[in-house]
Each structure stands twice: as C-alpha cells, then as structure tokens.
Design a protein that fits this description.
Oligomer: single chain
Order of helices and strands: EEEHEEEEHEHEHHEEHEHEHEHEEEEEH
Number of helices: 10
Length: 356
C-alpha cells in the first residue's frame, strides 16, 4: 500500500506503508544511529515525535530483547529500506510485526538523506504520514502548522513506584520517561534503585532517605514541566547527591534560574563528541534531545559548564557550585550508542560514598 509523508513546508515523499495504517501528525526528527533501532523505538524521549532513521537499512537483525521500555513511543517511523529477512540468533520477530502490534504507522522507501537535509537546512518541522491518496494539502498544512507536542512527560512516566533490589547505596530515580538502562546501570553497580513517577512530591523522595537522586531523561519541552521544576528546587536545597541526564539536566538548570532553547534540528544519534572540561578529554556520546541549556543564563556562582559539544559548542553538562550535583545532556547509559561516558555513573557512586 502506498503511503505519503507530508511536511509542513509542503514537501511530499511517497513510499510504502509499514506498521499501522492510521493517519499520524507529529514532529519529524532524524536519528543517525547505525544500530540500535529497537532501543530508539522504545525510548520514551520520542513521545510526540516521528523518527526518521538515516541509516539506509533498518530491521536486519529483527526484534531482540533490547527494549528500553515496555512499548514503542514514537508517533511514526520513517525508513529508507525495511529488511524483509531479519537474521539474528536473538531475533523474536520483525520490525513490521512490531510496528503493527504497537499501532505505530510508518513509511518505507523514503529518501531519508533528502529528508534529513531538509530538516537540517530548515529546522525540525511537523509532518503527517497517511495512506490516503486523495489527501488535500490545503487542508493538511494548517493542521501541521498548529500541531504541538504538549505534555508528554505525564504519558511517558511510570504509573507507580517500583524497586530494583540491591545491597549498595539507595538511589531515588525520578522517572520523566526514563530508559531502562539508567536504572540497570545503577543496579549493576549494586545500588537499590527506587523508580518514582514524575509527579512524586519532593517530600516523598526526601523522607525515603536516599543516598542519591537520579533525574532521568524524558520527552518534550522542559519549560512545560512547571510543577516538576518546583519539586526539583526542593531537592536541590537538600544535601543529597544528585545526578541528572538529558531532560533532568535541563530541569535542574530551569530550577536554578537558567533558560533553555530549542535547537534547530536537535542531537539524535550515537556519534556526538563531547569534551569533559575537567580533563579536556573528548568522549563519543549517545544523544537524543531537541532542547539545550543556555549556558550564559546561569550565574557562575550557581553552576559552571562541565561538558561542551565539540561540534556546535552547545552546553552538554553542568557542575553545581558547592553542591554534590552534576548534570549531563547526553546519555552515559548509551543504548544505543558508545559506552565511553559510563564512568559518570562511577563518579555518582563516589559522590554518594563521600556524602555518607
């Protein structure tokens, strides 16, 4: 069946329908990862977005037990070619079957290189995937221009608290749309991890007497998380060590008077170089975000820049003055991506031991 990808600037790509046949309107973004498509599909940070994979062949090793959450989160999926014969000793099914079971519409046969060039030159824009061959651009374009992602953290967070047992430090993980490997990375280091929903009051976290607090990744515009930011202010005012990733990094900055802004087309992939300013070493990182912290908006007496993006100079991390708090924009838990920056979990472990 034919399918069409329609962008808000009027560009139309024609391809083949994959997954669900329903119409979809969403923000169109691209990911440059060469592997890890299942981790991308199950990353809650993609809630409210449709993902175009720039690598030309997707699905060649099928569906494996590498999910970062219990379901698929993107509104849509866009690929150049979908593998017809997945092959891997861990394969449990095909991408096509997975998209159908998750009710995610998609389109194959798209020139994803041309699509990516448009998004890089014009910036991220909204789009529609439809199988309706009688589509009316004059009717669709206004709908695309008015679409907004809205509150997606409340959709992506866990519904109730749960615990990963461990014999080491107790960590409270605030789930704003957390990838499973964040909790697993802590749990592998012996931590007892309690995962809390995004709307958990700060008092509940503090009264549980954790050795450390983790603020997770998540979807959407950080400035819309008004009530969460107020709770993070209370957590900041404790002496509990805090480590924050991606959306958590942005929310901690906003809680301390910083500002965030939307990037032209975001950072999404597994090959982004970041420099640790404390050592001047460069690490290759996994990233998935469309917003960044304005480093000039934070008072140096509150926080100083700890990491910087080598490609475009944007902020990639902050160290908070006089506090056991550090935050990063990239993903040290990777999945998919390089594990260069996994040492940051060890740094967090040392912070918790020092606080004890």
């Amino acid at each position: 069946m034919k399918a069409f990808l329609i962008l808000e600037d009027g560009t139309v790509f024609t391809g083949t329908s994959i997954g669900s046949k329903k119409d979809m309107i969403s923000e169109i973004v691209f990911n440059t990862s060469m592997t890890g498509y299942l981790e991308v599909l199950t990353d809650p940070s993609y809630a409210g977005q449709a993902v175009a994979m720039t690598y030309p062949l997707i699905g060649n090793y099928g569906i494996t037990p590498d999910m970062e959450s219990k379901k698929a989160w993107p509104d849509g999926y866009i690929v150049r070619e979908l593998s017809r014969t997945p092959s891997n000793f861990r394969c449990e099914g095909s991408i096509q079957e997975f998209l159908e079971s998750q009710d995610v519409p998609g389109i194959a046969g798209v020139d994803t290189r041309a699509l990516t060039k448009i998004l890089r030159e014009k910036g991220t824009m909204n789009g529609m995937i439809t199988t309706n061959q009688d589509y009316d651009l004059d009717e669709i374009i206004p709908k695309l221009k008015t679409y907004s992602i809205g509150d997606v953290v409340s959709k992506a967070t866990s519904r109730e608290a749960y615990i990963l047992e461990g014999s080491g430090p107790k960590v409270a993980l605030m789930d704003f749309g957390a990838k499973h490997n964040i909790a697993r990375s802590l749990n592998r280091r012996g931590c007892e991890v309690t995962v809390y929903p995004a709307d958990t009051p700060a008092e509940t976290i503090i009264h549980s007497n954790p050795d450390g607090i983790m603020l997770s990744n998540g979807p959407g515009d950080p400035e819309t998380c008004v009530s969460v930011i107020e709770e993070i202010k209370k957590l900041y005012n404790t002496n509990i060590p805090i480590f924050a990733i991606c959306l958590g990094h942005q929310l901690m900055a906003l809680a301390n008077g910083g500002k965030t802004y939307k990037l032209k087309y975001g950072h999404r992939g597994g090959n982004h170089p970041v420099k640790d300013l404390s050592s001047n070493r460069v690490y290759i990182s996994s990233q998935n975000h469309g917003y960044a912290v304005d480093k000039s908006s934070l008072d140096p007496s509150v926080a100083t820049e700890a990491f910087v993006n080598v490609n475009d100079g944007t902020n990639e991390g902050l160290a908070y003055t006089g506090k056991n708090i550090f935050t990063v924009q990239f993903h040290p838990e990777a999945c998919p991506g390089p594990q260069d920056s996994g040492y940051l979990f060890d740094r967090f472990m040392d912070m918790m031991k020092g606080a004890q």
